[in-house]
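Hi everyone,

Forwarding the result from last night's run.
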Amino acid sequence: MQRTNSIVQPPTNGKLITVLSIDGGGIRGLIPATILEFLEAELQKLDGEDARIADYFDIIAGTSTGGLVTAMLTAPNENRRPLFAAKDIKRFYLQMCPNIFPQDWRSTVKKAFKSIGGPLYDGKCLHNIIRKHLNETKLGDTLTNVVIPTFDIKRLQPIIFSSYETRKKLHMNAKLSDICIATSAAPTYLPPHRFVTEHDGKTNEFNLIDGGVAANNPTQIAMEVIAKELNRKNPDFPNLHTAEYGRYLVISIGTGDCKIEGGYTAEEASKWGLFGWWFNANGSKPLVDIFTQASTDMVDIHLSAVFHNHNVQNNYLRIQEDCLDTDLSPLDKATEENMNCLIEVGNKLLTKKVSKVNLEDGKLIPCRDVTNKEALIEFAKTLSHEKHLRDGTLQRVSKPDPPFCLEKKHYFEAPKTISIA
């Protein structure tokens, strides 16, 4: 049964299953924020200025800073509309991040001492900001389904907070603020977060850190959550096999990778001890960079191959910058200059060609003769069409030439294994 608070009609009323995923990356969340602002603006051109990202996706997944963006897009305000418009997220980051990650000389001195014993930041400012905006909102209150990964350091296992799970596992219906604080608790940067949920007189304890240690790119987690619901015969979903990828529409947005030749060499790393792997002389944190970028790329490589093998590669759009300047790569560099540069990275990323991962060297190579901006414009048309199809208002919107998204001139390909009435 569809959640009563959802503003999205279930996929069974339409033709697609729509997924949005946002990577982790600290202050680099400004890059996907810029991309999302463009996408929402395109949706507003089609459906009016009140259109919001959450109106169009069956599931929105986010890790770390992506989890925070997910909450901002899906948490309800007093009018049962999304708490933030996409265009407001950049302003939020620009205003709040200098307080969350202070850059003055006093803070620099404090970080130098804290790096020896304890996280670089106490997290109090971030926690207060999150709690102020999300208040008592719980995971089950979001306006569409969300998935936010974390990692429990006491149980030594990933904990995936999913809106779907709150229906069967009521103890997972935690406060959205606690989940966001937990998924943002990057090791060495912010302290782990402990909280307790209660249900039927029982308590459940969580001791969580950044979901990026398990799934910095949460796209595959989102797909697996959907597969689980399909196996459960959830009536929200059409009766299809989990491998029928022609019914999926997936947008996955990264926060930038710094894949520059000579970043780390074996000769250099062979001299590192425990401290060297965690703190490099140039200010980077090699071990953190390695495990986040490795998991990020593995997910993209897997999904690119899966969609390509099913001949529906155009239903999957990964937007990522893999040549981020080293000066822009820190998760906590919240200077005005750096944040504006990250926004510019997002704007330039829109003008780049749609790309895929080269399996030989891991770098992105153009795979279509369209830009990310052009691809998002086509995605917006498809999302709008799908929404009106589900809402039963298709006759009142401008429709593209039929059959929509089935001809080669359109961006998406038709599913080849099922028949749609």
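The two ends are 22 Å apart (CA to CA).

Cheers,
N.
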